[in-house]
Amino acid sequence: MPGFNYGDDQDEVYTPYRRVLVTGATGLLGRAVYKEFKNNDWDALGSGYNRARPYFLKCNLLDEDAVRGAIQGFQPHVIVHCAAERRPDVVERHTEAAMNLNVHACASLAKEAGGIFLIYISTDYVFDGRNPPYGENDAPNPLNLYGKSKLEGEREILRHCPGAAVLRVPILFGEVEKVEESAVTVLWDRVQEGAESCTIDHCQQRFPTYTNDVARVCRNMAERALQDSSLRGIFHYSAKEQMTKYEIACAIADAFNLPSSHLIPMTEQPAGAGAQRPQNAQLECSRLELLGLSVESTPFKTAIRDSLWPFQHDKRWRQTVFH
């Protein structure tokens, strides 16, 4: 379609009949979702903002006219809304901007979606973490502004687009452009420090989940929805390996045959540690499983090796692995 060929081969004749719009396609999860659809016979249009050009459509999701133009121009069958401010500490510091993206943009997108199947990516942080595991019908009680903003985003999506699906996921990691892009891969620098000891949280329980697996779930949901319009409401997806951040760091070290003796478990939260996080917001995922839409999660060590492969330039790592 004219004006919407970002990322496509201009000489390509065949165009898949199924069209998907992926917001936040420049981000960690959005890239994986865009690639999953693109590689499986979907005509995919990714949108972004600051990092959009040259591969994706530049679209300000706070501009209702721009959102309307993108949807009317591309006419997607499915929208996967990945765009969000997902860093809890940033949300606390820049609340207005985060609320605009996490809440108000949801309302605009949902209003324009009409009869299009819309998947909204949400978070386990809508729960307080005091009584896990949490099912789709359990009452949310977010502890921080990030969780509150995503919960409000859910409500805006379902209010304006009752046929939409909300997909809640936990802490994510995947193929990053820089290690700081994920709260999991950012631990790579601490693992590599080696000679200097460092403390890492050993209190809060996490379920690190691979973006490629989430992307496969999104495609499964989209393809089912095109056949069955009753697919709607709230869904949960999560990997099953439970770890603290300290245990994640040790697992990363083990995956690359690096030492972990310099990593020190911190069993008490320091004062002023930023936005409050839930102790254990484990998601119960039976709804997707019963519908046959879930996927078996990739083992953590396999996924983390794939995710961090481009960053393995450390001399100690090369000596350990290859000698």
Automatic annotation (TrEMBL):
<dbReference type="InterPro" id="IPR036291">
    <property type="entry name" value="NAD(P)-bd_dom_sf"/>
</dbReference>
<dbReference type="InterPro" id="IPR029903">
    <property type="entry name" value="RmlD-like-bd"/>
</dbReference>
<dbReference type="GO" id="GO:0048270">
    <property type="term" value="F:methionine adenosyltransferase regulator activity"/>
</dbReference>
<dbReference type="InterPro" id="IPR005913">
    <property type="entry name" value="dTDP_dehydrorham_reduct"/>
</dbReference>
<dbReference type="GO" id="GO:0006730">
    <property type="term" value="P:one-carbon metabolic process"/>
</dbReference>
<keyword id="KW-0521">NADP</keyword>
<comment type="pathway">
    <text>Amino-acid biosynthesis; S-adenosyl-L-methionine biosynthesis; S-adenosyl-L-methionine from L-methionine: step 1/1.</text>
</comment>
<dbReference type="Pfam" id="PF04321">
    <property type="entry name" value="RmlD_sub_bind"/>
</dbReference>
<comment type="function">
    <text>Regulatory subunit of S-adenosylmethionine synthetase 2, an enzyme that catalyzes the formation of S-adenosylmethionine from methionine and ATP. Regulates MAT2A catalytic activity by changing its kinetic properties, increasing its affinity for L-methionine. Can bind NADP (in vitro).</text>
</comment>
<comment type="similarity">
    <text>Belongs to the dTDP-4-dehydrorhamnose reductase family. MAT2B subfamily.</text>
</comment>
<protein>
    <recommendedName>
        <fullName>Methionine adenosyltransferase 2 subunit beta</fullName>
    </recommendedName>
</protein>
<feature type="domain" description="RmlD-like substrate binding">
    <location>
        <begin position="19"/>
        <end position="311"/>
    </location>
</feature>
<dbReference type="GO" id="GO:0048269">
    <property type="term" value="C:methionine adenosyltransferase complex"/>
</dbReference>
<keyword id="KW-0554">One-carbon metabolism</keyword>
<dbReference type="GO" id="GO:0006556">
    <property type="term" value="P:S-adenosylmethionine biosynthetic process"/>
</dbReference>
<comment type="subunit">
    <text>Heterotrimer; composed of a catalytic MAT2A homodimer that binds one regulatory MAT2B chain. Heterohexamer; composed of a central, catalytic MAT2A homotetramer flanked on either side by a regulatory MAT2B chain. NADP binding increases the affinity for MAT2A.</text>
</comment>
